[in-house]
User: Fold Xyloglucan endotransglucosylase/hydrolase from Spinacia oleracea.
Amino acid sequence: MKMLLIILCIFDMVSCISSISLWPPSPGYYPSKKFRSVSFWRGYRNLWGPQHQKLDQNALTIWLDRTSGSGFKSTRPFRSGYFGTSIKLQQGYTAGVITTFYLSNNEAHPGHHDEVDMEFLGTTFGKPYVLQTNVYIRGSGDDNIIGREMKFHLWFDPTKGFHHYAIFWSPKEIIFLVDDIPIRRYERKSDDTFPLRPMWAYGSIWDASSWATEDGKYKADYRYQPFVGQFTNFKAGGCSAYSSLSCRPVSVSPYRSGGLTRKQYSVMRWVQRHYMFYDYCKDHKRNRSLTPECWLRARR
Ligand SMILES: *[C@@H]1O[C@H](CO)[C@@H](O)[C@H](O)[C@H]1NC(C)=O
Assistant:
């Protein structure tokens, strides 16, 4: 068995990783089941690349080729909420290509916007996708953009089927979830390190050859076009920016006031131990004074 695995690993990195990968323990709570699916047109509109976007039933396909990528945006801005969608990624050579699901207010605040990202970074043959999570607060248009990246591999092959990816954002915390498993929690430790202005939800596929794959070493190769992202099962629940101020933020745990259960925390730590390979707070090449949340204690 061991010999077989070694041979498999020499010839096919992806099957190798999937055959030795471990599945996380159960989170015990499934927020995606709490929120209704909404049809694409009820929640979203095309933002760019309309000719590279196709809606069939409730499954949206967007693609990137030599001429264009494509993106969509929620019709409403939100003050808080749960934003989820099931995504299936393109197989094969996808270096330079990124498929995204994120919150942003970059059109409302150009040059100093907030953003919360889930970005799937394409890959070369036989290597696994990277899920990069990120939080920007009042990112500036100059060179001083401060990213807060945490990067993961997944415990499944995201090109083989749909998996549910979600961003939860409340005035207290941001939680990233994959198939209802919390993989990262970003707390509001100070007002300066937390996005507080309304954001819209977005999805897109585009060419980020300059940085996406191994820091830009591998570029998009259009011999493999089109690069296709499939999105379905859109979920959104929360407080739109137009709702009354008494609207209570939703929660991704049984606790109405937010936070996670002990079981959810323990699965999150399990995922971070086994599948996270980059944490900006532990990057010694970075200037720690720019990311005080890495060492500030949580507010109680
Ligand atoms: C780190 O950032 C602070 C705040 O912007 C700045 O004053 C300091 O010079 C920076 N340190 C380095 C080593 O770049």
Notes: Residues 287, 289-290 surround 2-acetamido-2-deoxy-beta-D-glucopyranose (CB under 6 Å). The first helix runs from residue 2 to 11. The chain has one domain: 35-298. Residues 24 and 194 are 29 Å apart (CA to CA).
